[in-house]
Amino acid sequence: MKYLVTGAAGFIGFFTSRRLLDAGHQVVGIDNMNDYYEVQLKRDRLKELEPFEHFNFLQLDLADREGMAELFKEHKFDIVIHLAAQAGVRYSLDNPFAYADSNMVGHLSVLEGCRHNNVKHLVYASSSSVYGLNSKMPFSTEDSVDHPVSLYAATKKANELMSHTYSHLYDIPTSGLRFFTVYGPWGRPDMALFKFTKAILNGEPIDIYNDGNLARDFTYIDDIVEGILRVAKNIPTKNTEWKAEEGSPKDSSAPYRVYNIGNGSPVQLMDFVKAIEDAIGIEAKKNFMPMQPGDVYKTWADTEDLEKVTSHKPQVTVSKGVQKFVNWYRNYYKV
Ligand SMILES: NC(=O)c1ccc[n+]([C@@H]2O[C@H](COP(=O)([O-])OP(=O)(O)OC[C@H]3O[C@@H](n4cnc5c(N)ncnc54)[C@H](O)[C@@H]3O)[C@@H](O)[C@H]2O)c1
């Protein structure tokens, strides 16, 4: 099979590409290599993919309409796994237009590419942040998600709406994956695990928001990639029973699905910090801070649907996953 993986130099895109290549698929990876975080980390991820014979990389911006149209026309992909985006909640407060360009225009370029080139399945990254002000736990794809609290979240919800429109109009099967705080080796420098590990090893204090009263459904990268690849094989069909008046938001009369992809067990931030301290063997100096605008208090994924469709339940515990990250970090940065 021929796959397009967007954001192939990114954290999740890199692991997804590697798994596909290991399984013998052909992968074209694209990424604009932006400097939202250290570009060397993106280059080094790509270095790991270069030895694969069936891997091709192209530096391309999603918002480059002609470039994207040419790419789709040239390769005629079977399946598209669209992971490139401007990520991060806090950055969206100061850089809103980065989200308009990469997440809105970018998603449209991908949809147009799928529309004109007979792509069999588009799997794309949404986010747990779409749950915004929802307080019913666990977060379910049966619930409405109309109250985002960051522009980032609003663009991810918009991606789901745009995908539904294209599924309806052009019969493109689309599956949206709401990722819940993904962590692991080669992870993102703007996320808590990376920042805390770096600070603790440098003897610097860590900033703990909302005095530590936060919880996240941390999901290890291998569990995420397993879920992505299993969903990719499960091409959604039209739900002929679906009716607008009583139908659930998670599917449709169009070949459209959204899934939560998370661990299914929230961890308190202070327990997460303890796991990092244990993995490093040093106690952190802690700066307790107020709640950050745009953040949510707790995330918890209802993953029943995903388990039903993929027969996969996340396996990796936070203590094991954090230890793997810390081992990678110390080896990569030689600290
Ligand atoms: N990591 C998480 O916890 C998490 C949680 C929820 C959702 N997500 C979503 O999952 C996807 C992957 O996230 P990640 O953690 O791997 O992030 P990442 O930033 O490591 O990867 C995204 C990649 O996309 C590239 N990119 C950004 N804008 C682009 C553009 N306009 N054109 C081409 N390439 C572009 C970046 O250079 C980067 O390498 C994103 O859509 C993100 O919003 C991630």
Automatic annotation (TrEMBL):
<keyword id="KW-0520">NAD</keyword>
<dbReference type="InterPro" id="IPR001509">
    <property type="entry name" value="Epimerase_deHydtase"/>
</dbReference>
<dbReference type="InterPro" id="IPR036291">
    <property type="entry name" value="NAD(P)-bd_dom_sf"/>
</dbReference>
<feature type="domain" description="NAD-dependent epimerase/dehydratase">
    <location>
        <begin position="4"/>
        <end position="236"/>
    </location>
</feature>
<dbReference type="Pfam" id="PF01370">
    <property type="entry name" value="Epimerase"/>
</dbReference>
<protein>
    <submittedName>
        <fullName>NAD-dependent epimerase</fullName>
    </submittedName>
</protein>
